[in-house]
Design a protein that fits this description.
It is a single chain. The protein has about 80 residues and is mainly α. The protein has one domain. It is built from two helices and no strands.
C-alpha cells in the first residue's frame, strides 16, 4: 500500500510543479500588459483581471482546505 501512496505522491509533485510553473508564467505575461507604451487600458479593465485571478485563487485555496465527502472520519 505504501508503494501506491508513493506513486500518488510522485504524480502530485509532477503535475503540481508543471501546472504551477505554467500558472506563474501566465501571470507574468498578464503583468506585461501593464506596459502603457504597448497597450491602452482602463482601471476597470485592471480591476476585472485582478478580480478574476483573486476569485480563482480563492476557489483553489478552498478546494485544498475542504475535506472531500469520502474522507471524513467519525469516532465515538
Amino acid at each position: 500500500m505504501s508503494e501506491k501512496i508513493d506513486i500518488k505522491r510522485e504524480k502530485f509533485k509532477k503535475f503540481a510543479e508543471k501546472r504551477v510553473t505554467n500558472a506563474l508564467k501566465a501571470i507574468s505575461l498578464i503583468g506585461n500588459l501593464a506596459n502603457k507604451n504597448n497597450y491602452r487600458y482602463e482601471q476597470k479593465d485592471v480591476e476585472k483581471i485582478l478580480k478574476a485571478i483573486r476569485t480563482e485563487t480563492s476557489e483553489l485555496e478552498a478546494r485544498f482546505k475542504t475535506e472531500r465527502p469520502g474522507e471524513r472520519n467519525f469516532k465515538l
